[in-house]
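Q: Is it fine to ask for two folds in a single conversation?
A: Yes, each is treated on its own. Send the first.
Q: Here.
A: Result:
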Amino acid sequence: MYNITCESTVDLPESYLLQRNCKALHYSYFLGMTECVDHMNNTPEVLAQFYKDLEEFKPTTSQLSAEAYKTFFAENLKDGDLLHLAFGSGMSNSVNNAFIAAEEINKTSAHKVTVIDTTCSCIGYGLFVDTALDMRDKGATLQEIATWAEANKFNVHHQFFTTTLSYFRRSGRVSWAAAFVGTLLRMCPIMHLNRSGKIVAYSKAMSVSKAMQKTLDEIAAHIQNGSDYDGKLWISHSNCIETAEKVKEKLAEAYPKADIRLFDIGPIIACHCGPGTVAIFFWGDTRVE
C-alpha cells in the first residue's frame, strides 16, 4: 500500500482530494502581518473577502520549510510508502526542501518517500495530480506512477492571459517596464509555462477578446489529438467568471469530447496574479524552454 500527496497550490477543493484519498500540505500567505493558511475552501464568500483584502494589502507568500515537509511526510508514511507530487520548481523553491526532507526521512524510515518536481502550477498541477490518482485507482504501483510522472510532466500545458499586470510585476513575474507599458496601453499579455515551469510572456493583445482568441489558437496548436481531444481540459480564473465562462463555451465547441471543468484560482497563486487572469490547462505536446 502507498499514499499520494500534494500541496495546496493544486487549487482543487480539499474535500475533493480527501474523497480521492489524497492529502495536501498547506501553504500560507501574509496580508500585512497576518498569516493566512490556504485552507483550500474557496467559497464565494471566502474569495470575495480575499479580493477585498488585496485592495488594502500587498500580499506575500513564503516557501514551505524542510521541517514542514518532514512533519507532513511522517504523518502520511504510517500506512506505507509515499509519493509526493510537489508544486513546480519554476514557481517556488519549496520542492528543494521537499527533497531534503525526503532524504533525511529515508535514512531511518522503513517506509520511503519519493518526491516528484511536477513543474506544474495551479489547476495544471491539479490536473496532473488528478491523473496520477486515476492511475492509482486503476491499480498502478507507486513506481509506475513515479516513472509516468517524470516522463509526462512536461506535457501539461498552462496557457493564460490577464487584464491586470500590477500583481505579476510585484511578484517579479513581469518586469516593471513591461507592466507599465502594458497597463498604459491596456494590453493583455498572453503567457504560458515553459519546460522549466517558469512563466513566459510570449505575445500580447489589445483586448480581452483578442487575447482569448490567441490563447485558443495556441491550444489548438499544441493539444493532443486536435479536435478529438477527450482528456482533462480545465479552466481557472481569478475573479473574472464572465470571461472564464466565455472561454469555457468556446472550448466546449472546439473539443466536445473533453472533460471541461471550471475552477477558481486559489489564494496562493492569486497573490501573484491578482484578479483578471484566465488560465487553461490540458495535455499536449512537450513544453519547450
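Q: Second one now.
A: Result:
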Amino acid sequence: MLGIDIFFLILITALMIIFVTRYNRRRHQKAVQVQERTWLEVLWITIPLVLVLAMFYVGWKNYIPLRRPPKDALEIKVIGRMWDWQFVYPDGKVATMLYVPLNKPVKLNLYSPDVLHGFFVPAFRIKEDVVPGKNNFTWFTATQLGEYDIFCSAYCGMRHAYMYSKVKVVPTEEFNNIMASLGSASSTADADAILRNNGCYSCHSNDGTKLVGPSFKGLWGAKKTIITADGKKQTIVVDEKYIEESILDPNAQVEEGYMPNVMRSYKGVIKDEDIKAIVEYFKKAGEQQK
C-alpha cells in the first residue's frame, strides 16, 4: 500500500507541475476553447473506477475475516440503556463492569431497550452502534491485563456523559472466581440490584436529585400530586399499589412536573416476585427514615 501511495504522489505532483508550466497565463494570455475528446473522457472515468473498485475489493476482503468472531468466543449480552451498561453472561450472571478472561475471544451481542447508544472502547479501537430493534455485535481478544474505559459514543439524553463503565481483563482463574461470585439477572435477594440491573437508577436518583423521573428518596408514604391518563389531577399517598402500577403501567399516573410517555412499561420484564421485593425495599427505607 505504501508503494501505491508513493506512486500516486509522484504521478499527481508531476502532472500538477506539467499543467502549471504548460498552461500558465503568460503562455496563454488569450483563452482558447478546448474541443471534447471522447477517448480521453472515457479514459479518466474508467481508470479511477477500476482503481476504486480494486481498493474496495482489497478492503472488503480483509474486513470480512476481521468481522467474523471465532467459533469458541465467549458470548456476552451487552445491554445499553439510559444511562448505564449491563453485561449478561451465558449462565445468567449479571455485572455492571465487563469482566473478560485474558487471551480469550469475546463476542458482545449488543442490545438497547430504549434509544440509540454507541459501545466504544478506545483502548481496543472498537466502536459499534447499539440500535433498538436491531441485532448487532462486535468482538475482540484482550491481550493485556488491566482496566479499560467504556463510553457511549451516541448522544442519548441528559445523562449521556455519565454512561460509563470499564472492561476488566483478568487471568482465566480469576475470571472464573468472579463469575462464581456474581448474582443472576433473576435474583430477588437484593432489590437494589434489581433496580440497578433494570436501569432504574438511570432516570431516578437515590439522593433527592431530580432527573428524568422523580427521586426514590423518601418515596414510601410520601404525598404526591399526580396527573392521570385522562388529564385529571389527584393527590395520593405512595403505597404498594402505586409502586406496582408505576412499574407495570407508568403512564396511568404521572407525578406532576414530569413528562408522560417517557418511561416504558416493565410488564413481563420485571417478575412479580421482584416487584414485591422492590416494594418491600421502599417500604423498609421509608420506615427507617421516620
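Q: Anything structural to flag on that second result?
A: Two points. The chain has three domains: 38-68, 74-181, 191-289. The first strand starts at residue 74 and ends at 81.
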